[in-house]
Write a structure and sequence with these properties.
Strands 1-10-9-6-2-3-5 form a 7-stranded parallel beta sheet, with helices on both faces. A 3-stranded antiparallel beta sheet has the order 4-8-7. It is 30% helix and 16% strand. The mean pLDDT is 96. The protein is an alpha/beta fold. It is built from 7 helices and 10 strands.
Length: 263
C-alpha cells in the first residue's frame, strides 16, 4: 500500500479551527520561502466560514502564528457562472465570510476572480481563467501544470470536490488546467473548475469536512474500494501523503481509517 492521506479529527469546529490555522500558516511560510508569495486555491460551501474562524483571530506575534494576507494570491478551485455579487458566486461567499472581515493591519490578498464578461460562454470563461493561472504560474517558463502551495477543498455528500462530480467525463481531462461544466448535478449547472491533475499536483491539499451529514460519504471515501473512485478518493490517491483532512468527530463517526487528533 502506498503513502496515504492524513485524517485529522477534532471534537468540533471550534477545536478544528486552531489546527487548520497552524497548518495553513505553515503552508503560507513554505510558500514565502519558495517564491515570496502564497498561492492557494479555495472552494466554496462551508469552507470560507471555517477559514474565517481559523485565520481571523489575532496571532501571538511569531512567524508561526502570523497570517500575512498581503502576500496571498487567492484563486478559486471552482466558480459558478454568476455575477460576483450573486449568491451563487464562490467569490461573494469568500468575500462575505472572510475577505471583508480581514483587519487592515493584516493586509489584503490578491484575489483572482472570473471574468464576468463571459458568463454566457463558459468555455471562454474557463480559458480566460486558465490564462490567469498561466500569468501567475508560468510567467517566466512554460510548465505542464501549475503548482499551488495549498488547495483548500470541501467534500460534497456525493463525494464531489471542486466541480468534479462522480462518474463525470471531466474526471478524465488531462490537458486543460481549468475546464467548463454545463451539466453540474448540483445547481447552478454552469461552472468552471480546476481539473483533477491540477488539484493533485498541489504541494499541499487540505479538505475540510464537518458535520454529521458527512459521515456516510466519509466512510465510503476512506473505507471502501468504491469510494476510491469518487472525486475525493481520486484526490486522496493522487495526492497521497500531501493530502490532509480536517474533520470534526461527527463527520467521521464510524470511519475505520486511522485518525489523528493533533498536528
Amino acid at each position: 500500500m502506498g503513502k496515504q492521506p492524513t485524517l485529522y479529527s477534532f471534537a468540533d469546529v471550534k477545536a478544528l479551527a486552531p489546527a487548520l490555522r497552524t497548518y495553513v500558516i505553515a503552508c503560507q511560510n513554505a510558500g514565502f520561502e519558495r517564491h515570496g508569495v502564497f498561492k492557494l486555491a479555495v472552494s466554496g460551501g462551508s469552507l470560507p466560514k471555517t477559514l474565517a474562524q481559523a485565520l481571523l483571530p489575532p496571532g501571538n506575534g511569531t512567524p508561526e502564528d502570523t497570517v500575512a494576507f498581503d502576500k496571498w494570491e487567492i484563486f478559486f478551485a471552482d466558480e459558478r457562472a454568476a455575477p460576483l455579487d450573486h449568491e451563487d458566486s464562490n467569490y461573494k461567499l469568500l468575500k462575505d465570510e472572510l475577505l471583508d472581515k480581514i483587519p487592515e493591519d493584516l493586509g489584503k490578498p490578491k484575489v483572482n476572480t472570473i471574468d464576468v464578461e463571459y458568463l454566457e460562454d463558459i468555455q471562454e470563461m474557463a480559458d480566460q481563467y486558465e490564462q490567469t493561472l498561466v500569468r501567475s504560474f508560468a510567467a517566466k517558463d512554460s510548465v505542464k501544470l501549475p503548482i499551488f502551495d495549498l488547495l483548500l477543498l470541501g467534500s460534497g455528500p456525493d463525494g464531489h470536490t471542486c466541480s468534479l462530480f462522480p462518474n463525470h467525463p471531466l474526471l478524465r481531462e488531462t490537458d486543460a488546467w481549468v475546464a467548463p461544466i454545463s451539466d453540474s448535478p448540483k445547481p447552478p449547472p454552469n461552472r468552471i473548475t480546476l481539473t483533477l491533475p491540477v488539484v493533485t499536483h498541489g504541494i499541499k491539499i487540505a479538505f475540510v469536512a464537518t458535520g454529521g451529514g458527512k459521515k456516510d460519504i466519509m466512510r465510503e471515501i476512506f473505507d471502501t474500494e468504491e469510494g476510491q473512485g469518487l472525486p475525493c478518493g481520486l484526490v486522496n490517491e493522487g495526492g497521497a501523503e500531501r493530502v490532509s483532512w480536517f474533520t470534526d468527530n461527527a463527520a467521521v463517526e464510524g470511519v475505520l481509517f486511522p485518525k489523528k487528533s493533533n498536528l
